[in-house]
Amino acid sequence: MNVMSQSAVFVLLVYALVQKVMSTNPNVVTRWVYHMCRDTDIDILSSTGVWIEPYKKSLVDFNFAESIRPDKDEFKLEFSFKTTVSEGILFYTRSKDYPKEIISMFLSDGYLVYKFTCPNLAVVDFLYYEDRTRVNDNRWHNISFHVKVYNTPRVLRDKEANITVDGRDITGKTYRVSCHQVTSLVMGGKRPKDAEFIHNNTRTLKTVSKHFEGCIRYLETNLPLKTPPKYSVISSCR
């Protein structure tokens, strides 16, 4: 097959794929084609952000370089999001050497829910404002999560986890945790390879039947990236 024939086959394959997806949601295809035809400006780490689409494969996947630093078990994650949906996963983390550990946050009935499973503790906590305001109001909300390592007279390298929403500690709690180093982070959905684990080991997360849809931006973490963020079935914020 010559070069011209190969190019023609490729164009036909792309055209067939576009036609198939367009029959489901033409607006999404328009955005996909637009970004295929120019240098993309999608960036979850900046003000541009990324729009998570309402499809199960829509997500952003981070893999972190394994660290030998003394503070390797510390983990800090900050980001902003806005949405109108009442249900969906915002993020979860995994640890390569400790596959049953997970830290996650998701939406349930428009409220934020924070869940983690560590060797010493498993917690599910609803993050309510005092006035019970829901966060699926299409306004920007800022999340800050931090696992901090410190030394005490009795316990070496003890760890505490706390979380703030829009600058406020709305839980009023700090958790003693024993989770190990985070090696991956998923924003906005579930990786196919994690589906079985989530179904079998996280009773709360597996009840999240709908996919998150909305914008996530200004993501920051203290861990060095092993590779650039991997974007899947996403588009520009709007």
Mind explaining what this structure looks like?
The strands form two sheets. The protein has a seven-stranded antiparallel beta sheet with strand order 10-9-8-3-12-1-14. Strands 7-6-5-4-11-2-13 form a seven-stranded antiparallel beta sheet, with no helix packed on it. Helix content is 16%, strand content 35%. The N terminus is likely disordered. It has two domains: 32 residues; 187 residues, Jelly Rolls (Sandwich), CATH 2.60.120.200. The protein is α+β, with helices and mostly antiparallel strands and 238 residues long.
CATH architecture heading of the largest domain:
Sandwich
How do the helices and strands follow one another from N- to C-terminus?
HHEEEEEEEEEEEHEEE
Strand residue percentage = 25-35%
Tell me the quaternary state: single chain
Q: Percent range for helical residues?
A: 10-25%
Give the rounded overall mean pLDDT.
76
In short:
One of its GO terms (cellular component) is membrane. Helix content is 16%, strand content 35%.
